[in-house]
Every structure is written in C-alpha cells, then in structure tokens.
Amino acid sequence: MNKSIVSVDWLFENLNNDNLLILDATIPKVTAKKEESSLDEKQQIKGANFFDIQKLFSDENAAYPNTVLSAKEFELKAQQLGVQNESCIVVYDDLGIYSSPRVWWMFQLMGFTNIAVLDGGFPAWNAKQYPIEKQVNHPKKKGNFTVNYQSEKIKCTADVLSAIKNERILIADARSKGRFLATEPEPRSDIKGGRIPNSVSLPYSEIVTNNVMKSEADLKAVFQKINPNNKDLIFSCGSGITAAVLALGADIAGFKNHSVYDGSWTEWGSTEGLPIEK
Description:
This protein is α/β, with parallel strands linked by helices. Helices cover 25% and strands 17% of the residues. It is built from nine helices and 14 strands. It has a five-stranded parallel beta sheet. Helix 3 (100-109) crosses helix 8 (243-252). The longest helix is centred in the C-terminal third of the chain and has 11 residues, at 216-226. The radius of gyration is 18 Å and the shape is globular.
C-alpha cells in the first residue's frame, strides 16, 4: 500500500487480507456539546479494533491533552494491538476525517509508513452498506512492531518559537478562522485567544469536504496558495489533532517537509511569556 489515503471500496476489496489491521480512532470533537451516549450503540467496521488516542496512546501524565507517547511506550502499546512490522493498517473515525489522521501521523513519527486513512471514514463505509458490527474487541497476537523514530516530524514550543523568524519555515494553523483571529472563544476556557506570530490560517475544514479529503489536485492548489515558495511546514491546531489533518493533506499533495506542533495552541496559549498576535 503506497497511499496515505484509501477509499472504502479499496478497503472492502481487501477486507480479508491477512496483514490488514483496521483501527477505529474515533474521538469526539473538543468543540462538540457533550451528549450522553451508550457504548452499546457504538458500531464499527467489521473486524476493527479501537485505537484509544486519548487514554492509551497519549501521555496522561503530560500537562497538555493528546501529548504523544514516548517511542518505547508507543512501540509496546502498538504491539499489544497486534501491529506487526509487515502489517497494513487502515485507520478511520466516525466523523469522516477528523481524528484518524492523528493516528496516521503518529505512526509516521514512529517510522511506520504502511498506514492509510480511510477516506470518508465510517459514514462513507456505512453509506455503501459494507459490513459493520457492534463495537467489540478482536484480540490479536502480540505484534513485532519496532519503532524507527523520525524526530523531524514533531515540533515542541522551543522549535516553534525559533521558527517564527525563520523565513524558510511556514506555520499553518488548522483551527477555525474565528479562533485564529480571536473573534470567537477557545473551547478550553483557560486558554488565551489569538495566534502564533507570523502563522497563517488554514482551517482543516478547507481541505475536507462532506467528510472526505479534497482531490490531490485541489490539495496541491490549496497548499501552493499558502506556501508558494515551498517552505518547510509546521502545522498547529488546538491540541494536535486537526494539525494532523493538514499533515495528511500536505502529504497527499506532495509536500514532504512538514511536521506537527504537538502542544499546539493549548500549550502556546497557556504558556506565560510567549508572543501572541490577535
């Protein structure tokens, strides 16, 4: 599998591949209203296993949400999910394309590239009446996955601070334009409004239409418009989730020198002494 994104038709045709591992990476949007929902109602693609971004695959002791695990912790937890070095992983979420690219990016960071996001996610799969089931775990034998950490794919606050004045780097923000311009409040009430100086706005909703990723040609046009000089890209968002949507879009469009600011605005907007534009 040489693609970063696959269609529901492709997945259906390859459903019985012995090396296939389907991961459900659904998380609720931070901006969504909390609704009570029964786990009994949750459905998944037949044969999928849940990839718990927030509880298992984030550092729960970190100061900020969705902080990526250390390489060793990620390796062990991925092995427990059944990830083999020869696995072919397809990751999806219930919102179409929202949290699944975060998992795609995490595996890229850990040096595993045979992973693709399911375009349109569960809604597109269900619309074709492809096989689904109630949420259930399908135990796998422990995998032999080994990490080959790619440190250039992740940035910390110090990196971003130095990138602000670097003319060879462009910082793109996946939050809504209202949050970027501080004309609408942050969903986390303790976080200041505004943006990283010299960053540009590219809401992730501008590269996803009706729950599916825009075409490769359209993505190229979007990224060339904000980045005509082909600078290295750092993607930021609220807490590192939708920044990965931009990373996926950039990858499909052929831009390879990109990274994700893991702390994103949650860290920047709550750290004293950092410059903020409004």
